[in-house]
Amino acid sequence: MPDTDPVRDVQRVARGDTHADLVVRGGRVYRPETRRFDDVAVAVVDDTVAALTEHPDRVIGPDTTVVEASEKAVVPGFVDAHTHLDLHQAFDYSYQYALRGGSTTLVTELASWGELADADAVDAMLDATADLPVSVHVTVPPGPCLDTFTSPLCTPDDLAATLDRERVVGVGEAAWIHAVGHESPLHSLYDAAHDRGLTVGSHAAGCRGDALAELATLVDDDHESISGRDHVERVENGIHSIARVGTIRDDAQALGDAYAEVGDADFSLSTDGTWPRDLVDGAMDTAVERAIEEGVDPVDALRMATLTPAKHFGLDGKGTLAPGADADILVLDSLDDVDVSTVVAGGEVVVDTHDLQVGPQPVDYPERAYDTTPRLPDDFLAVPAPADADDVRAIEHEGGLLTSETTVSPDVRDDELHADPDRGVLKAALYDRSPANRGGFVGFLTGVGLDRGAVATTITWETAGVLAVGTNDADMRTAADRLAELGGGWVVVDEDEVVTELPAPLYGFCTTRDVTETEQHIGAVEEALRGLGATADRPFLALQTLTFVGVPSLKLTVDGYADVKNKETVGLST
Question: Stretch 457-481: mean pLDDT, rounded?
């Protein structure tokens, strides 16, 4: 019988005894191991790099696919070291745009789905991405076992059981306040990951000095550096520092500053999530381009997007074009602006001279992934007036993700507290939609600027909730009711009429539409919020991050306000 062993096929091609399935020739091939470009061709059999050869003609046969890369840069597929594929957009509808931006491998958090499905979220993402022509690796979401501000949804042992799944690379990010300065459920989960040789991520925004030193004994990487000094401090403490250029932040300048001080130092690049409107135009290609613009040598910027993250996460065969590696290959028309023209993923051409050769591949998600958005209880929005209604604790939106604590004097009618849009005071309600259904909390918000109407959304960071923010209870109720009918997403209401909506029925966090359609809907939501008087710099971001305790200082939880700095939950009374 003929020998059909794939390993033998690779060796035969390497020897020149048989023809390759695909050859990329004529370009200058980047070797991240030596940070050097060489005039060789890449020969591929099945989904594996068989050889880097100076004599491609000997492995080209009549059935060989030839990719002409004349004088262009040929580099390994990019590895996105930190992203969020469980927020905004179902990846089976959007993966092709990530490929077009050069991302052939992604390491994703599950901080959103995990709040509804805890350990099952891992299996859901692994199943949804198993057959896509892109490699998705998952970090186990630690959020469901946290007990800092609310009761946990599961135990660390429940989550640790998923660490043995194929394509799981470790534990995902948790805000450092959950792990430092006290005994935490996280510690046993971290130990379980390290026992398996896996990584532990962190969200260390604002963590410095002794706290950073303690954190360094617990975690392996962090992506929250917003200055060069932040990067250097992480390197000095032995934490792998991941720079980001994506929808939330562009921190390329910080990377450039750190690079000027300490050189490559094994930094990695990431997007930290690319939302639909940005994904249409690029992803990791933009991150590499921005790093180069900020002074990082191209050979180092490419290494930060290929071999370095692959090694950090133990992704054998990724981030390199060495013989035996996975056949993930990019052809760049221009290195200066990282213009990705052709993409080979797993040995198949998926982008050909900028044209996508693949499209959405919808998958069947588990039934429990839908119908996750309940109606608000009938009396939920009612807030009894306290004795001192002139001094009520509230969240003040400062910009971006940042909030602070303030006091307000809400309108008092019929012994209840109401929003007072004339003075910039909005009501902000959060109702739990996790399986535990821990109830909810109604507080107050300033700094967003609505002067009429309301908005409701289930896209709330690291919390599975129905968030309703508005100038009056009636519009808040209408928005939340419509949201329940849609199964999640965004609804904007004015005078009891729906102005616009964005359905996101997948766990209430993701749309199941093409990226270009989602992009239009997001634009419509933002336009509608502006039409209601929103003055926040990025209202779409400001609202969904009201629940995010990874940055200071007062946030919403289903049990009250999270006083982030003091690590406690507080109520309306000051």
Answer: 98
